[in-house]
Specification:
Length: 204
């Protein structure tokens, strides 16, 4: 089984992936943030490095999905392949940070890749307001995220909501991170676990 956790930068994807993996005994596929060779350059010069970054992510996530398909275990993945195509790349294009030529090239490749894969059995979307995102980004203290702009996070949030409203590829569960502190509150985490169990066992 393939579970995926989606959400904006700082929404808590990596943390929830780890917590659910620990509880259910699932294997994990994390987004390779620290090993990404483009992130520092991208946040310092988005226009120059946007296409390179998105191609890197597409390749990385496609390989993850191929590995998930080969596995006989249940795997929980930190971020989906769809978020780059429907949220991050279009946002960069609309902000003038990715050329139309590069965006069309990227999206053509994404369509080819997505035709070769199956969607996750369950997508867990972490919805968070910009103040919550900023607070959690500052808390983890990644240097390359110092230059993230508030309008960038806001635009991403708007695209996330649009994508989630139209998502029909499989089961979907939405968590309001503004009011669900699964990191520090065991009761909130227990509620999330119960909802995941219900989704996977078809109770609603």
């Amino acid at each position: 089984m393939h579970i995926a956790v989606s959400g904006n930068i700082g929404s808590g994807k990596t943390t929830l992936t780890g917590l659910l993996s620990h509880h259910f005994g699932w294997d994990t596929h994390y987004e390779e943030v620290d090993e990404n060779p483009y992130l520092d350059d991208f946040y310092n010069d988005m226009q120059r490095w946007s296409f390179n970054l998105q191609i890197y992510f597409l390749n990385n996530r496609f390989n993850h999905i191929l590995n998930i398909k080969k596995s006989e275990k249940t795997i929980i993945q930190d971020r989906t392949i769809y978020e780059d195509a429907y949220i991050f790349a279009p946002n960069l294009h609309s902000m003038g940070l990715m050329s139309t030529r590069d965006f069309e090239n990227y999206f053509t490749l994404f369509n080819l890749v997505s035709s070769l894969i199956d969607p996750p059995d369950l997508v867990i979307y972490l919805r968070a307001s910009v103040p919550t995102l900023v607070r959690q980004i500052e808390k983890r203290g990644r240097k390359y995220e110092d230059n993230i702009r508030l309008d960038y996070l806001r635009r991403l949030n708007e695209r996330y909501d649009t994508w989630i409203e139209a998502y029909k590829l499989g089961k979907l569960m939405v968590i309001d991170v503004d009011h669900t502190n699964f990191i520090d509150n065991p009761e909130h985490l227990s509620q999330v676990i119960d909802k995941v169990n219900a989704q996977l066992n078809g109770l609603f």
